[in-house]
Hints:
It is built from seven helices and no strands. By secondary structure, it is mostly helical. Helix 2 packs across helix 5 (about 90-105) and helix 5 (about 90-105) packs across helix 6 (about 110-120). The chain has helices spanning about 1-10, 20-35, 35-40, 60-80, 90-105, 110-120, 125-135.
Amino acid sequence: LAEYLNEKFPEAGLFPADRVVRAHCRSVSGEMHSGFHNLRSALPMNLRATHKHFKVFSGARPDIQRIKEIWSDCLNTYGGPFLFGAPSVADAMYAPVCTRFRTYAVDLEPQFKAYCETIFAWGPMQEWTAAAALEPDEIIELEVEF
C-alpha cells in the first residue's frame, strides 16, 4: 500500500529522497510489516486501555529489543525527531508500536520516549487517535454465514 501511494503521490514524500536512505526506510518498514509476531500477540493494540504494571512475557522481549535497536540506529543516524529525520512510511509503520508501548507501560529509554511523543503529536496520528475514540466499545460481529 505504501509503495502504491508513493507512486500515485510522489510529492507526499512518503519515503526519503536519497536512494540509500530510502532503501533503509523500506527495509525497517518491511521488517515491521512482516515481523514482530510475538509483540503483536502479547501486546495487542488498544488505544483506550492502560496497563501500568503489565508483565511483558519472554516471547515479546526480543521483539521489543529489536524495535529499540531499529529506532536507535535510525534516530542516531538521521538525527530525529522521526526515524528518518522527517516523517516517513517507517513512522506510520511503527506508530502502533508506540501505542502498544504506552498501553502496556513498556520501559523506554528517554530517546525512545521522545520518539513516541513525536509520534503522538504527529497530525496523522492525532487524527487516527481521535477517530478511534469515536468508535463503539464493542464491534457487532458481521452477520455472515461461514
